[in-house]
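Thread: Modeling a multi-component assembly for a lab meeting

Hi all, long-time lurker, first post. My supervisor asked me to bring a structural picture of a complex we are working on to next week's group meeting, and I have zero experience with this. I have the sequence lines for every component (1088 residues in total). Could someone generate the structure of the whole assembly? Inputs are pasted exactly as I received them:
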Amino acid sequence: MSQHTVDLSGLASHLPGSAAGDPGDAIARGLAASAPRPTYLAVADVSKRFGDFTALKNVSLDVREGEFVCFLGPSGCGKTTLLRAIAGLDIQNSGTIRQAGRDISALPPEERDFGIVFQSYALFPNMTVRQNIAFGLENRGLRRPAVAARVDELLHLIDLSAHGHKYPSQISGGQQQRVALARALAPSPGLILLDEPLSALDAKVRLHLRAELKQLQARLGVTTVMVTHDQDEALSIADRIVVMNMGVVEQVGTPQEIYDAPASQFVADFIGAMNFVEGVMLNPDEVMVGDLTLVLRRQARPAAAGERVVVAIRPEDVRVLGADAHAEWEHVNRVAVEVAAVEFLGSHVRASLRHPAFPAKPLVAQLSQSVARALQIVPGRRLDVVLPTDRLRVYEALRPHGAAAGAVHG
Amino acid sequence: MARLRAPSMADLALGAPSAPLIRPKAGRDDRLMLAFVLMIGAYLVVSLALPLGFMLWKSAEVRAFAYGVVELQVDVGQGFLSLGTLEEAAPRLGLADPVDQARRSASLTAAQLFPDARFGERPLSAVRMRLSGGASDGVLELGGKAAASGEWVEAGPRDLRRLVLRAGTIRSLGNYIAYFSNPALTNSIVNSLVVSLSTTLITVLAAFGFAYALQRTCMPLKGLFRTIAMVPILVPSLLAGLSLVYLFGNQGLLKGLMMGSSIYGAPGIVAGCVFFTFPHAFLIIATALAISDARLFEAARALRTSPTRTFFNVTLPGARYGVISAAFVVFTLTITEFGVPKVVGGDYNVLAVDIYKQVVGQQNFAMGAVVSVILLVPAVIAFVVDRLVTARQVALLTARAVPYAPSRNRALDASAFLFCCVVAGLLLLVLGVAQYASLVKFWPYNLTLSFAHFAFEGVDGGGWESYFNSLRMAFYVAVIGTAVVFVGAYLVEKGRGFAAARAGLHFLAMMPMAIPGLVLGLAYIFFFNDRANPLNVVYGTMAILVISSITHFYTVSHLTALTALKAMDKEFEAVAASLKQPVTRVFTRVTLPVCLPTALDIAAYYFVNAMTTVSAVVFLYAPSTTLAAVAALNMDDAGQIQGAAAMCMLIFYTNLGARMVHALLSRGLARTQAWRIR
Ligand SMILES: Nc1ncnc2c1ncn2[C@@H]1O[C@H](COP(=O)(O)OP(=O)(O)OP(=O)(O)O)[C@@H](O)[C@H]1O
Ligand SMILES: [Mg+2]
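Re: Modeling a multi-component assembly
Sure thing. I ran the full set together rather than chain by chain. Output:
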């Protein structure tokens, strides 16, 4: 049902902590966490319609000064629409946008203060790299040498000093992307807007440029909003992520918050991999799944007793008894299952676990290769797993049966 | 904050108390672009919509005396005696009905009302009249001086002749009724349809064969054939008529082939129209065949489908939009064509020539307008259908198709080559005969070569003068037309906001394609020659010729510019705005340089067409602004057929030169500008 199946092999890269390989990144996050900076961009109650179709519904969010924010969501959810509203390229029907304290809601783009990079880069084909970067510096009362100096500085910044004389068609896609970024940065705007700037590049270049972009942004400290539909990209690069769906904001939070505590079933489903099983609330602390009673701890919105709910747990949170010492003496939420299938994923193994409580869709657990080997996880093997109380999440059962199928979604 | 607006459905759907509505503030660029949209829109309204509307209005206007608003009093010695209105008095005075009376004569004097200055038995001592209507009811004059509305005008027995009532106009379909009750005129409708349908059939078949041979076979000399196919575009269409006369006319070279029948009439018109419509059909069908998806042919081959079945099940359906589009274009070109039927039509009347005869021959502008409206009907229908079909083809084009590469097939290649030789030979024959005729002393009696006919002796307005006028006009049309079209297309494609104004501009830009040149010209006579129109000053000048040509060939140029602009990244303007650079700077620094080759194409198109057009200008030239193609037409009319052929060839060589300059410039751009080289 979900279009957003994610390759589990990529999961490791956005597991909490694993993305923090970059020291500058960690510092920036530390700063953001310790001393919240003032709000730079405030979007309040913004709605946008195209004819009868509502592309944005009462969207509100704040971006702090120097922050790197990603708009993340499935195709068509309104990310670009929101970005273009912020830029003044497609002005919203209602709602206000304030930048640095100034109400810019109705202003045309040339009266706002931002630099923008499009997916296509939109480099001027008949101008050299230098001329492209200089384009926004001319007509501003700057002297020629000053313009040249600034262009040199930017060329150095993007590491393309040797390519200034070339035309866009003579440099690689990754280089074009950096030129577009330099052109946007040239007049030192207060805000940088990026609409899927990396999606036109091949996977390897994309990973490299992603890190570079993050470093550059941290170094310059310029407030940045980036649109992407690639969750790996968002989780690894953003200070905070705005998850959108069908024109509404589902959740705003740090990558860790979004991953650990998805605010809605949509977010839980969209980010990372997640098991979903249906159940009925017994009381605020217990949920009935088939003939199993599961104990809960963390709940965003406590559901009333008797309410139909969806219980969610990430594959890596399913603990297999015997795999780690702590689990041995845990008896809460202990479930006896049978291995239905095993999928080999390099460093990890994905096991589908069958139980009468969720007959249609097996529970997926992710184990390290060594654990799988040690426990002889093979189809037909019976074993006990624990679903840790603090790892179980409960959502209102909004979706019709099937949409919330227990198979792994990303 | 007070809300002045009732919540709409959409607001309710949004739920939650909705935030204040935002009214986008227009920026500097918005205002500038809107100003240009309005300017170019105004140009098209004045040069197209208003004249056409005015002509339509005039075609439903009939001259009549406003009997009802004219009061009449007579004095037969005992003071004035009222006779009531003319309407009441008409039977006593023996007046015909208001329209018939106006048809006999546009003015009515008191002397006509009272012959011998008598009223009944008694001699008149004075007559008084009073007109209380408006301007359209006519004028009451005494001694040439118009009376104000409601003012009594009086004349004595001796100057009854000086009291004149001039006819006004009424709205009526009288002109249309007159048209349809005259079989000599309505015959032309059938004739026009007959020749247009025959031409369409022949041209599309020939063009399809030619295009198929070029796109789908491995025959040799494709480049040469492609060039020859374009020849008819470079000459006035009437050249085909002249050549046909020399080939099959009374003293024709190949008269024997006619076996007694005459080239004058339908056969000549069809043959001539096939000649000049051929390149148009060829280009459209060749494009359609070029984009057909190679994967379908591979599939057919894999399934071992026979070549014949492949042709009918794959080739034809793939090219069907191209064929349909070509058919409609050829049909429109033929039914609105004027040059060819004028030269070889003989007694076979067609609509376009009827307009010319009504206007130039009989000075019956109203009837010319009626025929124009009749001619507009098929032209507009064909245009609309063509646009619908083309929209579909574009949808096909954007699909991910793989171009087809033909493979060798001896029999097919040989027959394709043979076919192309025949078609190209015929095209060159038409051109060659005109060339030969223009160079011999006196056809067919003295065939020594001479340039005598290029002196254009005894030509109205001077032959060479006409030629240089044409050069000047074509130059202006190319330069001004390209600029206007390009800026207009830029605004339509890249403007932001004011969507309605841009859509309106696009609509206006598409209209000229549906308007035959003669109809546009006649509309200009009505509109610009009206003394009440302040734009009257351009009438009879070079300016009106330039305007009518720019407008007449606007649509194709507009579409060409749009295609090029659509290929440009749609975010250039957004990037520039974010960098706080005015839109004019993106336009001059990026859009224009990148689209320069297209601008050159448009200029070349405009130049060539302005050199060859007759229909758009034939009603509008003045003695000081005679044009080459019109001179050719007039020479033919005056029996100087060799002179006409010489003029056509002069135009041909000029256009050939223009195309060569165009090719050199285009190649120069591609070579010298490093960024164009991929
Ligand atoms: N100009 C427009 N007219 C009508 N509908 C539009 C227009 N622009 C966007 N939409 C619609 O609004 C919705 C949101 O579009 P938007 O471009 O913001 O999506 P997105 O989240 O950026 O998706 P993607 O990841 O595919 O770029 C889509 O359903 C789209 O069809
Ligand atoms: Mg988008």
